Every structure is written in structure tokens, then in C-alpha cells.
Amino acid sequence: MNDIRFSKQNGGMGRTAASEDPISGLVMYLPELAEADLINSNNALQFDKLEDTDGSNDLYVFKLRYVEELEDLGLKAQELSMLKSAYTASSEVAEFKKIAAVNALVYHVKEFFRQHAGGTLYLGVKFAASSQVNGGDLQAMQNYAGGSIRQCGVFTPSLSYTSGGSTVSVLAEYQSACTAMEAAHQPMSVVVTVTGKTVTVTAPTGSTTMSVTTADVSGFTFTTLTGNTNSVLAGRCNVSLLVGLDLDSELVQSLGHYAYYGCIGACMGTISKAGVHESIAWVGKFPLGLASPGLVTGELIKDTTVANLEKINDNRYLFVRTHVGNADNYFNDSFTLDEATSDYAYIENVRTIDKACRGVRANLLPYLNSPLRVDATSGQLASDTVAFLETTANKALEDMEKAGELSGFKVEIDPEQNVLSTSEVEIVIKQVPVGVMRHVLIKIGYTTKL
Known about the structure:
- By secondary structure, this protein is an alpha/beta fold.
- Helix content is 30%, strand content 19%.
- The chain has helices at 35-38, 69-72, 80-84, 92-115, 135-144, 170-183, 222-226, 249-255, 264-273, 306-314, 347-364, 383-402, 419-422, and strands at residues 23-29, 48-51, 58-64, 120-126, 151-155, 160-163, 166-169, 189-193, 197-202, 211-216, 239-241, 244-246, 293-295, 320-322, 329-331, 406-413, 427-433.
- The chain is globular, with a radius of gyration of 25 Å.
- The protein starts with 22 loop residues before the first strand and ends in a 17-residue tail after the last strand.
């Protein structure tokens, strides 16, 4: 019936979370876009144009505080499936692909804010010809954000590319970039997703309409996902690989050739919402609400055997799974691509220690190059100096313990250090992390009495 309706908008007040833990990034390689799509006088808001650390490729970045800013940037999804049948000219293939690129960008940003409305997202777009997202792009994003990005998603075509006649592994490159950022006191966790199917858009001939066909990606098939992985490597603790997505038919149509990438927006939104010590696979807290969970290689989770899902899980990939007796869906785990025996085998392990490092450094930094009082008779650190430094280093860890992000900690300084000779104070910090209940063993049976 006729009526006056209201649609309550959210995010207009620009409220953000109290800490910087939720600050996230998302870098997307979308070659169909151009500078005019992101920097346009008709848009209320504009992207900033950056360059890689090597100065070679342009990167466009905007800091999103709420999802409604997308339209102010001139970015709005279109119904691609309805338009497809109307295409009759070969020149419109490019238009088809551009709509899909915008739809993919809007979809993943909306998914981020659907999972965490209070998050902050630095959105990066790259469209340099014959390129991908590289390690320099991650560093450029982090520098733009003043080192505040805690986790960043990467949406790029494949796990490798050719540069100077050599094959470059993006996972290795991203880990190297993360190691460099950590050395610069700007640690970051990275989640990568690549396409699992090639989607070809064919121009119409005569009176026919455009056709869209899919094919397996060489070297990244379902067999690859379930086979022996070469993605896991000792020390690859800042990088994770996402292979789960939503295969809802309408969504697949609207995303066109960008349909078979992982649900990176939902993933980054979940990480942003999670406490640094929390697994994104927590069933009670992080339901994903995807319509048709699947894999980037095109298989639905409901049609994939448990044995094959176990193999993908053992390869330490992130995907979306269901649980019997629960109607929603969830991430399988929170793996990094470090070895399973590493202290940093899970995203929450890395985020927790990164937060501790940032906090301890922030508290101690004002005292860098300050005088160190020593005991006049021994030349070693004075007891009150030791106590002061231990207390200062304690502050950030105490806050984390109170927030439930650490089970406990201890800060120790050996007073017998010869600081007059070295000008260096060694501080030893031991942390007891918060565990994650990944497995439950219940012993149940009958008895004649209790």
C-alpha cells in the first residue's frame, strides 16, 4: 500500500572503534578502472594517488569510515546480469568488465562493514597494465596510513607473476614486505586471495548476445587445493591464503570475471571485529552469513567431501565451512602460512604479539637516549632504574591482560648489565597467550551409578 518509508542509514556520525586494532586495509587489482573513476570532480570525495616504494606503479587510496562513503566516491554497483543480454556490440565487452570491477569493489567493501560497522578501511585500487598487487603497494598503503594498518587484504589475480624474466611468488614478496614493515615498527598481517577460475567474456557476433564462460586456472585447481601445498614455509607468519567465497548465483552474475575470488571483504571485516587474541573461526561470535559457501575453484562446500575439506584445512588455507546443527557458516580456522609448530601459526598469535610490541615501544620511546643512572660502586644499573623501566614496559601488557588479550606476562631486566660500555638495556618479556578451543574431546557413556 501507499506509504512514507524510512531507511535508517548508519555510519554518518563517523564513530569508530576506541583502539586501532580494527584498522584494516584492502588492496584490489582492477585493471578495467581508470584514474577518472577514482579522481573525478563530480564525486564528493576523492581518492589520493600514491606511488609504490619503487616509484613504478600508481596506487589510489581512500580511508573509509563507513560504507555510505562509497557513493560519495562515485562507486555504485550495477545489475550486471540484466545488462548482459542487452549487449550487442563488441565495444561493450569493456563496459561489461568495468561494471564487474566496480561491483567487485563495492561488494567487498560492503562485506567488510557488514561484518564490522565500527571498522576503518583503507581502500587501495591498482590498475597498472600487466601488473599485480606487489609488496611495494602494501608498504605504500602502510606509509599512507601512518603505520596504523593492523591487517590488510590483497585481491590480486594469481600467486605469481613475471618480472624481469623471473617468476615472483606473491606470498614470498608479501612476507618480505611485512618483515620490512615490522623492522620499521609498522607490523601488519596480510590475507591474500586470488582467482580460482578464468572467466572469459566473448563479444557478440551478428544478432547473438555476449557470452561468459569459465575455465580452470592452470596450477590453481581443486586438485591443487587438496594436494600437497608448497605455500607453507617456516617464517611465513604474516601471510594467510583465503580460498573460500560465496557462490550465490546472483552474486556470481553480478561480479562477472571477479566472481571466483575469496570473500576478502568479509574476512577482513571479521579480523577487524575480532580482538587480537580471538580466532576468526569462533562459532559463537563470528557467523559469516554467506548464501552459498564454496571454494574459489567453483565447488560448493555442501558438495565437497569431508576428506577433501580436511586436506584443504591441513594445507592451512582459509575457507568457509558449516557445522552440523547450525544454520550459519564460519571460517574453518585462522591459519597463517607459517609451519604448524610455529608460535605464530595463527593470525591471533601474530596480532597479539604485534600489539604488545607496539604498546611496549610506545611507552619506552620517550626514554630513548635518556640518562641511565647506575650504581656508583658496581657500575651496573641502579635498582630504581631497573624498577622504573620494568614498570614502564609493564603498562601496555597490563592493559592487554585486563582486556583478556593475554593470560599473563612478566618483564625482567638483569641489573648486572654493563650499560656504561654498551649503552644498551636488554629487557626480557615473557607472555602467556590466551588459548583457542580448536578441538573438544567428550567422553560419554553409561554407568550403573554416579
